[in-house]
Amino acid sequence: MNYWLMKTEPGCFGLTHLKARPKRTEHWDGVRNYQARNFIRDDMRKGDLAFFYHSSCAEPGIAGIVKIVRAGYPDHTAWNPDGEHFDPKSSPANPIWYMVDVRLEREFRPPVTLAALKHNPALRGMKLLERGNRLSILPVTGREWNAILKMADPG
DNA sequence: GCCAACGTTGGC
DNA sequence: GCCAACGTTGGC
User: Fold this and answer.
1) In this predicted structure, what is the pLDDT of residue A155?
2) Which residue ranges does the record assign to the EVE domain (predicted)?
3) Is this structure's pTM higher than 0.85?
């Protein structure tokens, strides 16, 4: 069982969008970075848990937890010439890009903000907090996972 | 809107 | 294979 952090822009697809989906489940498409792709394709397993992180918004932070309910499979949005995520190099025979399905498991109310994460000494060295980090999918250690869970309101 | 950091592209 | 130019990310 692995832990992850997945970034999304709430103005584009945030926790409220996922919450409104049937079974609170949606595929996580549009990853167009090879390092993130490799995590999705090779390392994410059904049953893994991930923090759902809101970026590029007024209050960046972790909005909740999702479960990987389907392991990596080809991202078909790369094959739609009219779509935002079209990539002519990708084809069903050679997909290049992959996605997983995620289901909303828990909502943090309030979210655990980036400012709070930075303030927690237990999270020193966390990849998310390293400067210049731009990866949209990041592995999270068990220690980091537990430290962040403690920061969330029990609800 | 600004800007630093980073990944990708393409000329050579 | 090098590296400058360019585009994107993402916090502020």
Assistant:
1) 66
2) 2-151
3) yes
